[in-house]
Fold MerC domain-containing protein.
Amino acid sequence: MITISKNKGPFFDKVGILVSTVCLLHCMIVPLLYLIFPFALFPFLSSEWVHLTLASLAVPIAIAAMKMGYSKHGSKRPLYIVLLGMLMLWGALLAHDSPWLETIVAVIGAASIAMAHHLNHTLMGKPR
């Protein structure tokens, strides 16, 4: 079981927003780089392990943040949004045969996770 001090909730949301934004930018910029420089190779940026690493970081951060947020504000909305985003982010890995579908699903998933963290952070500042 994860034990987290009560004052770390906003920290996890801020880190979650950062990781989700990095993932979002990665998913958007790498295809654009290939369009602009079609003959250039970006093996580091386009590697599957980058996507796996960012997605793997997002999960424990989101669990910690949503747990803290729910215990403070009692709303399940951020949890539902982050779960949808995680499903999309991980589901994008299954769409690797269609790079554009993978990118679109991953971008929407990462944006959903960032929005869930933002909503969670906002709700934590409001009384129940």
In short: The chain has a mean pLDDT of 84. Residues 9-36 form the longest helix (28 residues). The two ends are 25 Å apart (CA to CA).
